[in-house]
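Can you please make up a whole protein chain along with its backbone structure tokens because I've never seen that pairing?
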Amino acid sequence: MAARRSDISEAVENYAKAIYAIQSRDGTVSTNALAERLGVTAASASGMVKKLGGLGLVSHVPYKGVELTDAGERLSLEVIRHHRLLELYLAESLDVPWDRVHAEAEVLEHVLSEELEELIAAKLGHPTVDPHGDPIPSAELTIEERPTKALADLEPGARATFVRISDSDPEMLRYLADRGIAPGDGFEVLDKQPFDGPIFTRFGDNVHVLGGALGHAMRVEVTD
């Protein structure tokens, strides 16, 4: 059964978006992983998954758990497009700090009309990435995911460009912003301590010591 627009609640959109994120990262989506991501009980997640199944947005695949149908993927990409366009608009047009745009966009993404979405996209010059480097799905709901590495995987001497970081941890974003580090910046790895220890990097003329959690969160493209 195809979902009617009147059946698509904010909760349904949040679940579809969460399933897409886990599916893209891990390939498999368990009820427990979904519950953990959304901060709900496994029973609540299981109930919502059944609802999404009834709407034709997900299916159960043996050994893979929950998987978005074509309709579910289109819904998730539509919500992601709204979210990332809003983040960029808030950051560029309203000067909202990049550690705050995620929370604001989480609210506004569900009420953004298609007409306003197009106006925002046109105003921003039809951008392809949001302030955190995440790709913005096109108006046709296609998305280009470029291959990246975690900063923590690089060895001393490597040169790379910082291209992407999750918007889910405002403290990390504030830490980077305070040090003038943003997607698009090139850097060199100077030293790396063992056992997930800190990584010494040079961004421009400045040396920064980045902890293990940041090393795993920061996604990079190697240039040398």
Remarks:
- The first strand starts at residue 58 and ends at 61.
- The chain has a mean pLDDT of 93.
